[in-house]
Amino acid sequence: MGNTRITMKGLAKILGVSTSTVSRALKDHHSIGEETREKIKKTALKLGYIPNSVASNLRRRKTNHIGVIVPRIDRYFHSSSISGIEEVANEAGYYVSIFQTKDSYIKEVESVEILMSNKADGIIACLALETSDIDHYKQLANTKIPLVLFDRVCNDLESNKVLINDYDAAFKACDHLAKIGCKRIAHIAGNLNSSIFKARLEGYKAALIANNLTINEDFIFYGNILSEEEGRHFANALFDMNTKPDGIFCANDITAVSVIQTARERKFSVPQDIAVVGFSNTPISKIIQPSLTTIEDHAFEMGQASARLLIKQIEDNDQNIVSETLIIRNELIIRESTVPAE
Amino acid sequence: MGNTRITMKGLAKILGVSTSTVSRALKDHHSIGEETREKIKKTALKLGYIPNSVASNLRRRKTNHIGVIVPRIDRYFHSSSISGIEEVANEAGYYVSIFQTKDSYIKEVESVEILMSNKADGIIACLALETSDIDHYKQLANTKIPLVLFDRVCNDLESNKVLINDYDAAFKACDHLAKIGCKRIAHIAGNLNSSIFKARLEGYKAALIANNLTINEDFIFYGNILSEEEGRHFANALFDMNTKPDGIFCANDITAVSVIQTARERKFSVPQDIAVVGFSNTPISKIIQPSLTTIEDHAFEMGQASARLLIKQIEDNDQNIVSETLIIRNELIIRESTVPAE
DNA sequence: TTGTAGGCGTTATCAC
DNA sequence: GTGATAACGCCTACAA
After folding, report:
1. Which DSSP state fits A291?
2. Is the minimum CB–CB distance between B114 and chain A shorter than 8 Å?
3. Mean pLDDT by 10 residues, chain B (342 residues)
4. Mean pLDDT of chain A
5. C-alpha span between B19 and B41 (Å, rounded)
6. B177: Cα separation from own chain's centroid
7. What is the pLDDT, as a whole number, of residue A3?
């Protein structure tokens, strides 16, 4: 057990061959003779040789490393997308490292810097809520490191994107509320700095208009991180109103669940007093009572698509295509929070 | 924008100094004159210099990179521990990359190999269910890369460990069931290949014995990944029995929730017909109705403790301490699934 | 089929 | 205070 690990040079010396031969043998280069190769591989194994990727990466100018930047991995949407990314990336010989921004702009900038310094082959990112200045991503552009933004993207940035049509999804959700007879539809909106929450708000408004309902600013709650606490806070405010909404579209499942729970505590019934729709079809939406009507946004598939797109950019390098945008399907899933089980 | 990024060498040439001076200036080395330093930093910024960590890592033999290996990041316990790890690691100047094994032995071995090759400064791991052969971790030992195992550890391996007392936690859970009057306590066990599930089963048995209850093998359901489906399957089997249990301790919250849901579907009431206890205090346990009695295992704190322990090993390198084991506290949280709200 | 030599970009050690 | 030089471990043109 030497203090320092054996290297190719060491193996070469022991076997009386050159380092290039060792290097080639270990990579199954065709030009190496059968017996030399076997011999080298055997002793490499015996001596516990471990390739040094750091050196190899430096030399090859390639790391086989994809960086993923997401707001918070403990949100179902993100952990699912990461799973999708990982599946595709590993299959293609890349490993994935994950950076959590906790929706902080600073952390996002730092993450991008680390990934640039570490020469990641590509980056997949979902923007932090705080992020509006995007110079760090622009800088990325002239490092030739491909970027895919997913879900929360930025329109000011020309880059590859994978997203759903949030406007359309929100429209469907609110149109459904209108069709089941809601007249006073409220909305818990997310941080409007973020593309998706802006689009969901627009979709909400459009659906009301399309159904000849008036848009009441008092019925729009402007949230930020859409945590359970925020949801409870808004729900309480809502149930304190004189003229209460009879339907609500929440920009995520977490706040929708809070509304249902608050309704229960305050003896309102869902959907009779108020119908509730969430967003993302997280596991909890099936478990809560009444179960939650929500939008399925296919997070896992978004992750897969993002990784495929990124790897294509890394490997094909088609100079003609400047950027590509993929829209992933979404569906309204109707459950008891809008249509009671008979 | 040239095709390849500027390096220290390039900066040196442009400024008419040596690379060593550039290197030192950018790191605020004291021996560099005020004006030279400023000048170098300014042009570095202007020309968009990005340090190449790959080269630096090779030279310094240090990557400031901690690898984390977990079964599945979409389980609340793991995403919380990762958050704890990240917080501590980032604070100390390390970045964290995450590998998901999906409980597969092969993926675990591959992850360790990638991290060894990439010269991670340390590894934090939670064993995959499939893992019983631990040679890959033993190999790690003679690379001098410190390892911390957390939660699901391995007794055959001398390494740093951070865990809770699962035996004790399970004992508390089942003792509680006995004290509220349950006479026929069932258990949904996890994969017994895993230390924690073995300990929870032991704790269960010990609590029954301590309360003079007989251990009925028919009441022990041997699960594997403890998914919702497994939970439903066992719950249905349980409710089909002639003599039904009147209490059940589930080795995780997911299966406990399935039991509650199945009970509801089959018109049994919780806790009157059967009292239910889960494990991990996941967010869902507060939301389900009735809310779930469970064990709080402080995942976030386990993550923090693991990272602190690892970083200590990386930086102190105290040759006297071979390994260290930390036991994190746990508590029984009593909710409506065992004690109805009045 | 194998060897030689140079360099990937940085930093540590000497020297001046 | 600054520079020259070598080395981290690997890969690859070129040569033999």
Report:
1. P
2. yes
3. 77 94 93 90 94 97 96 93 95 93 95 96 96 90 91 91 98 98 97 96 98 97 96 98 97 98 96 98 94 97 98 83 93 97 78
4. 94
5. 13
6. 28
7. 55
Q: Which helix or strand (DSSP H or E) is residue B315 part of?
A: helix B299-315
Query: What pLDDT, on the 0 to 100 scale, is given for residue A292?
Result: 98
Chain B residues touching residue A73 (CB < 8 angstroms) = 73, 79, 82-83, 98
Q: Which residues in window 16-55 of B are less than 7 A from strand D by Cβ?
A: 16-21, 24, 31-33, 36-37, 55
pTM surpassing 0.90? yes
Is the pLDDT at A299 greater than 80? The verdict is yes
Hey, what domains does chain B have and what are their CATH numbers?
8-51 (no CATH), 62-164+299-330 (3.40.50.2300), 166-297 (3.40.50.2300)
CA B206, B250, B217: angle at the middle one, nearest 5? 55
Judge contact between A114 and B95, C-beta under 8 A.
Answer: yes
Instruction: Tell me how far CA of residue B64 lies from CA of A184, B93, B239, B243, in angstroms.
Output: 55, 7, 53, 58
Q: Which of residues 124-183 of A touch strand C (CB under 7 A)?
A: none
Q: What is the pLDDT of residue B3?
A: 55
Measured CA to CA, the distance from residue B110 to residue B136 in angstroms comes to 9
Of A134, A76, A116, A67, the residue nearest A94 (C-alpha): A67
Report the distance separating Cα B115 and Cα B69, nearest Å. 10
- Closest to A336 in 3D by CA, of A286, A299, A301, A292: A292
pLDDT attached to residue A256: 98
